[in-house]
Structure to design on (157 residues):
């Protein structure tokens, strides 16, 4: 198949284009006088794009409490069978209380998320955070904390 092309190109009146574009964009960027006067269409101006800054993601209050509580456990130690050990270590609920500072909605949501993750990993029988905490090893407890933090991050809470 042969396609025939015409070597002669008929230019349209530049003033007609200008009037049409004025209707589309009433405040266009002025063209240099040399390009506007010629009958050769101007090449489009390429503006280098700067990479967009990544969106700023704020840490939700539940994620913050869980993260701060795990940091507290890492710093002060983890305990079983007592809220606060004489040497400063705490159980999971004690760490939550220390991180939250008050019994508020975020504290309750963090506790519910932690208990839900404990039930996911260790069975539905756990009624409270202290009963689950006291029945598991440090690595098992840490695994639940880390998973709860990931879920809070994913849920953006």
């Amino acid at each position: 198949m042969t396609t025939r092309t015409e070597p002669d190109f008929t230019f349209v009146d530049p003033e007609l284009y200008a009037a049409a574009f004025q209707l589309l964009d009433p405040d266009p960027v002025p063209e240099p006088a040399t390009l506007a006067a010629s009958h050769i269409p101007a090449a489009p101006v390429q503006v280098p794009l700067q990479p967009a800054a990544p969106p700023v993601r704020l840490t939700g209050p539940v994620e913050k409490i869980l993260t701060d509580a795990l940091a507290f456990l890492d710093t002060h130690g983890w305990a079983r069978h007592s809220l606060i050990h004489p040497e400063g270590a705490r159980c999971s609920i004690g760490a939550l209380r220390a991180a939250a500072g008050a019994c508020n909605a975020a504290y309750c949501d963090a506790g519910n998320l932690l208990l839900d993750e404990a039930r996911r990993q260790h069975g539905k029988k756990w009624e409270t955070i202290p009963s689950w905490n006291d029945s598991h090893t440090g690595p098992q407890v840490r695994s639940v904390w880390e998973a709860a933090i990931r879920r809070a991050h994913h849920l953006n809470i």
In short: The longest helix spans residues 105-122. The mean pLDDT is 83.
